[in-house]
Amino acid sequence: LYRVNEQAAALYQRYLLESPKAEEARAYLERRGVPAAAIKDFRLGYAPDPGAAGWSFATSHLQGLRLPVTVIEKAGLAVKKEHGGYYDRFRDRLLFPIQDLTGQVVAFGGRILGDGQPKYMNSPESPVFNKGRLLFGLYRHREAIRRRRQAIVVEGNFDLLLLAVHGIDNVVAPLGTALTRDHIRLLRGYCDEVVLLFDGDSAGLKAAMRSVPFFLAEQVDARVALLPEGHDPDSLIRDKGAAEIEKLVAGSGPLAEFVFDTLARRYGLTLAGKNHIINELREIVQAGGDSAQRSLMVAHFSDKLGIAPAQFLAGVHEARPPERREEEAGPQRPFPESLSRKQRQLVDFMLLYPEFLEELLAAGGAEVVRETAGMEIISCLQELTATGPVTPDRLLSALPGESERRYTAELLINSGGSGGEEFEQEGRRLCDELLAWLHMARRRQDGADLMRQINEAQEDGDQDVLMRLLERKMAMGQT
Q1: Opening angle at CA 206, ends 193 and 160, nearest 5
Q2: Which of 69, 256, 355, 459 has the most CB atoms around it within 10 Å of its CB?
C-alpha cells in the first residue's frame, strides 16, 4: 500500500508539472498564489480529466509497474466496475498527498477543478489511512508546532497551504471530519495550545462544541480565533497579509468561553434561554476531563449564568402556570409534599449523610431532584460542606425556609443517628443502593441523549459521527 501511494504521488506530480494537459491546473494554482516551490514542497499533483487521459490513467500506470490491481483498489485509487475492470477514483482534481507521521504517503485529498461534485474528496480509509487519527500537515509542520508550542487548526487543505506559503507554518487541518480525541492526543505530543481558526458559522460552532470534551480530557488549552465575516484564511491573507492572521491568533479566546458566549447570543439569558444553554453545556461538562475539571466548569458556567451549581446540574425550572382559575386552585403544596417519593428519599439521605453529597451529585443526584425547594437544600448543603463539617446547628441556620427547617429538625430527631460506626455503615449501604438506582436512571437518560445525537447526525448528514454513535448505542445495549 505504501508503494502504491508513493508511486501514485510521483505520477500525479509529474503530470501536474510536465503535461500540457495540466495547464489549467497550473493556472489555477498561480491564480491562488501558490508558487512553484510550494507545489514541489507539498508534492501537489493533478489527476487528469478522463477526456484527456482516459478513465484508468493512474490504474493502468500502476499496473504497468507490476503493482496488483487489488492493492491499488485497497489504497482507494481504483474503483471496481460493476461488470468488470477498474477506473480511477480521482479525476480532474488537484491532489494533496497525505502523509503519516513517518512521512509516508498513505492517502490523497482532492479538489475538483471543474463543476463536478463533490468539490472536495479524500481517499477512503484503508489499513494505512484512518482520517480520525491523522491531520493534514502535521508531519511537515511538526517541528514548527513543537518550537512554538502551538498548533493552528484550519478547515481545509488549501487554507493550510496558503498560510504556509505566507510563512505561518504551525498549521494542521482535519481530513474531512471533525476533530477527534485522537487528533487532540496527537497534537498534545507537540504543543500545549491549539487555536481553532474558523469563520463561526453553525457548522463551525457544532464542531467546536463537539471538540471541547476532547481538549479537556487531554488537558490541552483550546482557543478560538474567529475570522471576520465573509472571509476565509485565503481571502483574509490576500487582503491584509499574514500579520492579520497572526493578530487574530494572538487575540484568540478560550474555546469554552467562545461556546458559552455564542450560546448566550443565540438563546438569550431569559429563563428559557438559560435552560437551552444548560442543556447544551451539560453534555460538554459530563463528557470532559476528570471530576475536578468538571467541578470547575460547573462552578464557572453557573457563575456566568447566575445560578447555583446544583441548578446547573439539574436545569433551572419555571413554575407552570395554573391550569385552573386562581379562585379554583388549591393552595400550593408545602415542602416536602411537593417532592416525589424518590426525590424525598434522596433529599432525606443527603440531609442525614452530607458526607455522601458529592458522590451522589457526581452520579446525577441533582438531575433527579428537580423541585425548587429540594434544589435549594442541595445548594445549601454544597455551600456548607465546602466550608466545614455540617453540624445540625449550621444546617438548621442555613436552610432557606421555615418548612424546610421544621422538616429537617424532625428528620434529625427521628433518625436516632449517633454518628457511630453502625450509623456510618448504614449510610454506606443506603448510599450504594441510591447510587445503583442513579446509575440506572443515568443510563436511561444517556440512552435518550444518544438517540437525540443520532437524530442530529442524521439531519446533518455526518456519516462518520453517525457510525460512531450507532457503535456506542450497540455497546450500551451490551453492557
Answers
A1: 50
A2: 256
Cβ atoms 97, 10 nearer than 8 A: no
Pick the CATH number of 2-122 from 3.90.980.10, 3.90.1310.10, 2.60.40.1230, 3.20.20.120: 3.90.980.10
* Cα–Cα distance, 101 to 43 (Å, whole number): 16
Kind of pairing between the strands at 221-226 and 93-99? unpaired
Q: What is the DSSP string of 77-130?
A: SEEE-TTS-EEES--SEEEEEEE-TTS-EEEEEEEESSS-S-SEEEPPPBTTB-
pLDDT tens for each residue of 49-88: 988 899 999 999 999 999 999 999 999 999 999 888 999 9
Nearest residue to 316 (alpha-carbon basis) of 271, 361, 281: 271
Cis status of the peptide bond prior to 336, with omega within 30 of 0: yes
Domain boundaries, the chain: 2-122, 138-260, 341-464
pLDDT digits (tens, 9 = 90+) for 372-390: 567 778 888 888 887 788 8
Q: Is 237 a residue whose pLDDT tops 80?
A: yes
Residue with cell 490504474: 59
Would you identify the CATH topology of the domain 138-260? Answer: Dna Topoisomerase Vi A Subunit; Chain: A, domain 2 (3.40.1360)
Distances from the Cα of 293 to the Cα of 169, 210, 213, angstroms: 32, 17, 11
Considering Cα of 160, then 157, then 125, then 59, what sign does the dihedral take?
negative
Cα 65 to its chain centre, rounded Å, is 43
